[in-house]
Amino acid sequence: MQKSKIDVILGIQWGDEGKGKIVDVLAPRYDIIARFQGGPNAGHTIKFGGATHVLHTIPSGIFHEGKVNVIGNGVLVDACIFCREIAELRQAGVEPRRRMKISDKAHLILPTHRMLDAALEQRKGARKIGSTVKGIGPAYTDKTARCGLRMGDIFSTDFTRKYRELKEEHLSQLAHYGFDAESALIDQMPWQEYEKQWLAGIEELRGFEVVSTEFYLDEAMRQGKKILAEGAQGTLLDVDFGSYPFVTSSSTVTAGVCVGLGVPPSAIGKVYGIFKAYCTRVGSGPFPTELDDETGETLRRNGHEFGATTGRSRRTGWLDLPALRYTLMVNGITDLVMMKADVMDDFPVLKVAESYRMDGKRVENYPDTETAENVEPVYVEMPGWQRPLSGIRDYAALPAAFKAYVEYIGKNTGLDIKMISVGPDREETIMNA
Ligand code: GDP
Ligand code: IMO
Ligand code: MG
Question: Per residue in 206-241, pLDDT tens?
Fold first, then answer.
C-alpha cells in the first residue's frame, strides 16, 4: 500500500484566521489531527450545538469520537494550562485521555518561563512584542539552547532535580533583569500557587500516552490513515518570514510540519491556507492596511475581534493581497479558505490592498519590517453585497457582489477559494469544490 500524505491547515495572516473552526469542520475526513508548533499562545475557537469551546494546546479534532489527536514534538506544553483545558473538555463530556497522544519530545513551559516572558517584555518598553506572556519565547529559547525539559523527562526519577535546577537558573536570570520574582503573579495568582497547580498538572500528564509520535505517524501513513496537521498563529508571525522581531518563536509555515511532527517533506499533501476576508493583528508590529477609524471599529465590533487567549482587542484592517501572495509562496498553499466575510455584510464599499507604494514607487516584493511600517497600500474599491451571508450554504445562492469579491481574490492569488465560512458555527460553511 502506498503511504498516505499529510494535509495541512495553517493561518496565512497574523493568526486568529479561524483555523480551529476549519480543523473541526474537516476532522470527520481524517483519522488523526496533529498540532505541530506553538503552545498555549494559541486560542482556537470551535462552535457547535449552541456551545463555544476554546482550545490552546489540544488539537481541534478533540470533539470527534474515534479520532486520534496528536500533540507533536514542535509544540510547547504548559502543564497548568493543559489541565485547565482537560477539565473543560471533561465538563463538556469529552474524555481526552482516550483520544490523545503526546510527543515525548514536546518541550515544557515552566512557570518561570512565563515570568521571563513578562520580564523580557518589560525590558523592551515601547518596542515590546506584545507577547501573550505564556512563556513561548523563553521556552523555545531553552529548547534551542539545549537546556529545556521535555515531556519524556516527566517520567524520569530525576525529574524533580531537573525541574529545580532549571527553575533556579531562571530565577537567577530574573534577578539579573531586576525582576521582582518573589511577589510575581501568573494568571492573577502568586506564582508559587501557579507552580503548585503546574506540578499537579505534571502528575495528570503522566496519565497520558506520551510516545515518540514520529513513529506513530509513520506507521499510520503506511497503513493509509489520513492525517491533518493543525497550525497555530499565522505566517506573518513566523519566526523567519514574519515581521521580525514582532513574531512568535516557532515556524508557523508548512516546513514547520516536518520538524514539528517528524515527517519528511515528501509526506505533505494539500496545504489549506486560512484567511479572513479582512485582516486582524494582536500585539505590536507593522500592519500596512490597518484602519484606525470607524470602519476599523465596525470590523472589531461585528467580528468580535477580541483575543481568544488574552481577551486583548485585535487591530483591524482591509484585506492585504501583497501579504497574502507572499504567504502563499512560502507555504505552497494549494487550497484557500476564506473566513468571516459575513462581518462586512453591511458595508456599501470594501477596499482591498492590491499593491504597496513607497516614495512614489511600487514595492514589488513583500517588504522587511521597517519598510512594511512605511509603505502605503494601493487600494481597489469593490461594491459590498449588503445582504446577510450567514444563512447561505450553497455557492450559487451567494450574492453576485460577494462572488465578484471571491473571484477577484482568486484571480489575484492564482488559487481557487475552496471553502467559505459565513459564521462561527460548524454548520455555517460553504464547500466550493
Ligand atoms: P484561530 O486562532 O485561527 O482558530 O481563530 P480564533 O478562534 O482565535 O478566532 C476566530 C474567531 O472568529 C472565533 O471567535 C470564531 O468563532 C470566529 N469565526 C470563525 N469563522 C467565522 C466566520 O466565518 N464568521 C464569523 N462571524 N466568525 C467566525
Ligand atoms: P492563534 O493560533 C494571534 C502574537 C502575539 C504577539 C506575537 C508573539 O490563536 O492564531 P508569543 O506569545 O507567541 O510570544 O507572541 O504573536 N500571537 C498571536 N496572535 N493568534 C495567535 O494564535 C497568536 N499567538 C501569538 O499577540 O504579537
Ligand atoms: Mg486564535
Answer: 999 999 999 999 999 999 999 999 999 999 999 999
Which residue has the least CA distance to atom 21 on ligand 1?
424
Smallest-distance ligand from the CA of 310: 2
Give the CA radius of gyration of the chain: 21
Grid cell digits, residue 216: 506513530
Mean pLDDT, all residues of the chain = 97
Distance 18 CA to ligand 1 centre (A): 4
Task: Tell me the residue length of the chain.
Answer: 433
Ligand 2: distance of its center to the CA of 42 in Å? 6
